[in-house]
Amino acid sequence: MSTPHNHASAGEIAEKILLPGDPMRAKYIADHFLENAVCYNQVRGMYGYTGSYNGKRVSVQGTGMGMPSMHIYAGELMEHYGVKKLIRVGTCGSLKEELKLKEIVIAMGSTTDSNMNCDRFGSISFAPIADFELLKDAYEEARKRNICATVSNIFTSDKFYDEKGAEKNRLLTSYGITAVDMETCELYTLAAKYGTQALTMLTVSDHLVTGEKCTAEERQTAFEDMIKIALEII
Ligand code: HPA
After folding, report:
1. Total-model pTM
2. Do residues 73 and 46 touch, judged by C-beta distance below 8 A?
3. Of 117, 119, 131, 176, which alpha carbon lies 20 to 30 A from 31's?
4. pLDDT mean for each 10 residues of the chain (234 residues)
5. How far is CA 213 from CA 98, 177, 181, 206, in A?
6. Which sequence spans correspond to the domains of the chain?
């Protein structure tokens, strides 16, 4: 029952899963937050682990960078492995002066320059959105911990290095978009297709207005707050 990208057998992956882009983060989460974590996948170094958090069976799987990579990993989790609740835990660039490094963004919806949904839907412009229950729970859990979380539409870009970036970012911020990642649009679209629950939580790792970047250490602390919220609510 394995796939070309995931060698887990049926039943080895939990119905609830955290999805970092970076597979080394998957290992870090398994090592530091899960009990009795077992590695079920190492194909292409895209690690996946299943363990437990406060008695809850949870998996964590790297998804790589960009929508096509998310398409493969999240699509297979939903289609072949019966995964029902997925929380992407990643990083983003801030597009808004007030949204500072290390803060958390919860993506209510995703706008994109990718062609993937044009190919799927033709002239219909599909609106990829978060699962409401996960969104509400994540926001409330952040508030409870006195952590500032921005809930907004985000931009899922096909390019990390974009010649037209500055122009696009100005337009998008004028329409209320606060941050940029490269995967959420596909995660939310697949969740709609398979009737699963998905949410993206992001920490700001770089600031596209001020040019600031997190140090490796700063990335780590901000990331840990977000992981705790995600594991509590999933
Ligand atoms: N662009 C796209 N994705 C990102 C960025 C960025 O600046 N930072 C973290 N993920």
Report:
1. 0.97
2. yes
3. 131
4. 93 98 96 98 98 98 98 98 98 96 97 98 98 98 96 98 93 98 98 98 96 86 92 98
5. 15, 20, 15, 4
6. 16-233
Pocket of ligand 1 contains residue 111 by CB under 6 Å? no
Cβ pair 72, 114 in contact under 8 A: no
For residue 8, give the 3-state DSSP assignment.
coil
Atom of ligand 1 at shortest distance to CA of 182?
3
> Token pair of 158, please?
């096909």
User: Alpha carbon of 26 to those of 20, 121, 134: distances in Å?
Assistant: 6, 32, 20
From 102, 185, 206, 212, the mutation candidate for ligand 1 (largest count of ligand atoms within 8 A of CB) is 206
Residue 90 alpha carbon to ligand 1 centre in Å: 10
**CATH 3.40.50.1580 at 16-233, yes or no:** yes
